[in-house]
Amino acid sequence: MALDSAQVEALQNSVPTDWSKFDQSVAVDARTFGQAPGGLPPGMGPPHDDKLHVHFYMKPRIDIEESTKQNRPIYKDVPFVTIMIPGDKNNIVTAEVWDLHRRRFPLHWEQFLAGVKDQVVGTPLKVAPFLTEAHIEELAYFKIRTIEQLADLSDANMTWMGAREMKEAARRYLLTVNGNEALLERIKALEQQLNAQKAEIGRVEPTEQQRRK
Hints:
Layout: H1 5-12, E1 53-62, H2 64-70, E2 75-84, E3 92-96, H3 99-104, H4 106-113, H5 133-141, H6 147-151, H7 163-204, H8 208-212
Antiparallel strand pairs: 1-2, 2-3
């Protein structure tokens, strides 16, 4: 039913709407996020940051001050963040971005500012020789995007066929890669030590002319 001019004026002059109760979509208070335990689910504290799925994005949020002034809902786009344990659909934290989020997840934040929609920090699944494209798509559904996340998957979150085998393959891959890196570093250190010894011998060994004298 359309309102006449008198009814519209009456509404405009009525008690202002409490816009602070208008939008209740934020799942948690961002100010408490990141304070371990801080009410966060187990496995979401700072020690687990490299294993979490973190996604920054823009989302409209009601502007209470402007809404109160104009007595109608006014929204503005602000950055939000969603954090979850890969594979765990029951514990998802969504909050407006505060400085503590930017400090805690600097690489994800930098990727977001650069326009990257899928912020990934770690070894992408696409480089895993033991996964097919179908596996990668399946894992993306569970917000598993890196080999590190797959290797750290908890038993409670391995809910699909072949999950345990994928996890073990991921762990073996990381052990192999890390082992090769450690071996290369060891070889490099030994080469540097050998070169230093050769240089030292060269400095103290007498020359041919010194021998003749």
